[in-house]
Structure formats: structure tokens, C-alpha cells
Amino acid sequence: MPENQKFVLATHNPGKLTEMSAILGTLGVEVVLPSDLGITVDVEETGETFAENAMLKARAICEAAKLPAIADDSGLCVDALNGGPGVYSARYGGEGLDDAGRRMLLLTNLRGMGTRAAHFSCAIACMFPNGDTLTAEGRCDGTIAYAPAGDGGFGYDPVFFYPNKAKTFAQLTAEEKNEISHRGKALREFSEKLATYLGK
For the chain, which terminus, N or C, has the lower number of CB atoms within 10 Å? Predict the structure, then answer.
């Protein structure tokens, strides 16, 4: 294995790049965005699970870049909505809504519901040019708050309440969130598997 292995992260989100680089940098892995390599691939997320969507993205970027590619797919699963919005978390309520609009829609749809139990789920997939794959998953359980609170994080973080800390995800520091979040858990599992794989 070359000393500094280059991996492409299938995302347009600089926050995810920072997160991934911090964890994988310790393995001597350099993480770059597709845009850094002049690659623009729009992958349609047609999978029915987070794991399927993550693998679709990793495979498409790996084929385009001829480099190992990492992708993640995550979302919010609410018990009272039969696990929704789930894989449609980023598209909940249609194209016209922004993060704040999706949060308000969620709170409106939960009005009067008996349970507010929910969990965040994250799946990470890695595809190598030789066809090898690695996968990892993480989950964090909580409830949906009655109103948004906090100004950190992104997406549904202001309405996802984590009982053990008595705060929403948006009220946690980045360190606290990484410690307990679905993505933090999936990343730790993934980096362990990757370390084993690269050590081969």
C-alpha cells in the first residue's frame, strides 16, 4: 500500500470532508472531494435503505475517479411516521423546502402523536477499484423535540432531542455530537475496518 492513500469522498458537503479527514488522517489516508479531481457525477439515490444508497454513491465515484471512494447516507427515522422520512430525509416535503421548512413540516406532522421516539441512522460504504467493499453502520436514539432549539449542526439537529444529555443535537458541541452521533459511531466502526484492510 502506498504511504499516503488517496480516497474520494462522495459528497458536496465540506463539513463531512472535515469530519472524515479528522478520523481517517490518522491512518495516513488523504480524503479529497470529487470536485477536487474535476469529477461531477450525480448519483440518483434509488436505494431502499441507507446502505444501498451509500453503496450506489461509492460505486459511481470509484468508477469515475479510479480511486477508492467513500460515501455515506443517513437520515432521520421517526416511529410515529412508520420510520419516515428515512431515506427521503433530505427530500422530505419536496424540492421547495429548506432545512427549516422540513423541520416545521416534521413538527406539524407529529402534532398529537402519542410517541415522539426517533433515531438517526447512518450507513458508510467504501468501494475499491479492485471491487473490494467495506461497510459500516451507526445509530443514535432520541426523541423529536416540540420546538427547534440550538444553532449548531445541520438538517434535523435542532429538533432531535438526546435524552442522556437533555439537549438537541444542535445544542451539543461538535465533540459531544461526534461522541454519540450515528455518523460518529459509523465512522469509528468504518475506520477500524479500514485500518484492518489497509494493514493487509
Answer: C
Q: What is the span of the domain harbouring residue 142?
A: 5-198
User: Phi, psi (5° rounding) for residue 123?
Assistant: -120, 135
- Mind listing the pLDDT tens digit for each residue in 171-200? 999 889 989 999 989 999 999 999 999 886
CB neighbour list of residue 149: distance below 8 Å, 6 or more residues apart: 158, 159, 167, 168, 170, 171
Active-site residue flag, 79 = no
Whole-structure pTM value: 0.89
Q: Which of 72, 73, 132, 157 is catalytic?
A: 73
Q: Which residue has the cell 468508477?
A: 63
Q: Quickly tell me which residue has 470509484 as its cell.
A: 62
Beta bridge partners of 124: 72, 136
The structural domain count of the chain equals 1
Q: How far apart are the first and last CA of the chain?
A: 9
Return the residue matching grid coordinates 413538527: 107
The CATH number of the domain holding residue 100 is 3.90.950.10
Q: Which residues contact 13 (CB under 8 A, 6 or more apart)?
A: none
> Is residue 140 helix, strand or coil?
strand
- What the block records as the C-alpha cell of 172 is 451539543
pLDDT band (50, 70, 90) for residue 12: confident
Q: Grid cell 458537503 — which residue?
A: 13
